[in-house]
């Protein structure tokens, strides 16, 4: 067997090649990390050393190019997927301004330099300038790892990337077609029509297909990931058909799937894990393989071009970041972060220079100069982003947290194995992402002669909770209790584990014996002050259309007001669904003020109601993808009134086709025999109003 393996250079055995690449991906970042050198730089340098222009241990064959292309598309896809769409819409004008500056400044500076100083004709001069006008989000994995992906400067840079790359590729298309004599009116009409059709298909049709597919594949986790990859490459292919680069399609695919892949979901964890550990490192290594350092010593023209580009490119990008900072009053750290993210050149730069080389406008010197630019700019981008990102992450972590931001300790009592995944998914989405508290699935067994056997069965069932939560990269601690009844076991677990929230499933069935939900839930409501969420989830959470939130009068006076608002906003952010708040005008005014001033940013509407009858008939206004969230209250509390006791019956009878959650916030009990003093709270108490 061994004598059939012939190790020649460059390596040709697929198993050996793949083993070596994986070793590079594993070892190089660890070694360079000891010297505080970003792993991205190390992987590019590894490509230089092991590639055809180094020791030629690896050749840049079809397999390396394939994985490299996938990695490049993955970077753009993840950038679109992780962007905060609310902030993206909010800061679209700022993205447009930065995108314009980061395109125009390099184009003007580069064209004038190569036209007047290097003596190039106007078309080659424009193409050479186009090499350092676009940028690739090569350092985005660093930003993601540091938790800065939602920073305004990052959102602005991502939007600017789309604008400048599209503009450069449009310029490239014009030059190529003008060289071939195809710049008549028909050419312009056809190009614009193709682009418009492509954008419409990816941003309008793809999300509808994806929502339907996620519903069909709810239990097929592996199939969901394969479907996501299919969408990315389909969008990339359509982008090329429309006359643009594949990276534009991958980015738009990320925007299209953004609302459908929650950031705390198992699917997102799979997307990031595979991309950051396999595909993106392959791209970095394949990029390094393009670099030929010998050119700097043998080709004087290439040296001049490379020197000019290496100086002009970062200067132009820094100028764009500096002007943007002054206009929008960003901090110096944010300015440097914008520069770091936008200073790397790879994808569009290669597209420009290769296209110019193929049609004879640019020579080999320009090609070699572009490759040097890729290496140098990648190092500048990685070092700058890593250094600034760490400072900004430390600064943000020192900000005084809101009282509602205390660590979540979520208890999930499990009774029905069919609801485990939905309840765990919901709990993960409701967790404060800045804290690493585990989720506590709970099994309660009645204390009798069969208790030992039952506890074994329950623990076996809870293993599914561990398996599912592990896919989301969240810790899970199983809890088992033997008690005289279920509610007593849950109450004991709440006290012992210092639980802040309890997430419960409900089958939406009410018997004549039930007072509100049933004996267990009613006992919990009477004997706890923690926030309790009673849920019925009947469709995948990531396909939720809107969150319809019913808010009672005086809700703003409760202790848990800020906490349930944060939970609803987190859920909205994770599932990508806008919120529609329904309540009395006074309560909505207070609610609007709090929602606008606190993070995360969400898309919200505020619709007044008059009484409970509207809630009972509101089902006719809802779509099947809408989720109803009712903010209720325990008896003898400030926001309670007797009409709330009918809410479960209304939900059970009128909302059979919608998922819903009834939230009981943290509350101080207020006994009926103690008169309420208006001055005790920051508003007027009115227990007589309907919710």
From TrEMBL:
Domain of life: Bacteria
Compartments, record wording: Membrane
Claim: Transmembrane helix is one of the keywords in the record: yes
Pfam families, sorted: Na_H_Exchanger (PF00999)
Any GO molecular function: antiporter activity
Keywords: Antiport, Ion transport, Membrane, Transmembrane, Transmembrane helix, Transport
InterPro entries noted in UniProt: Cation/H_exchanger_TM, Na+/solute_symporter_sf
Record-annotated Cation/H+ exchanger transmembrane domain positions: 23-385
Topology with respect to the bilayer: Multi-pass membrane protein
Segments crossing the lipid bilayer: 15-33, 40-58, 64-83, 95-118, 124-143, 155-175, 187-206, 222-238, 244-261, 273-291, 303-324, 336-359
Gene Ontology cellular-component annotations: membrane
GO terms under biological process: proton transmembrane transport
Coiled coil feature spans: none
Gene3D superfamilies per the UniProt record, alphabetical: 1.20.1530.20
Name the record gives this protein: Cation:proton antiporter
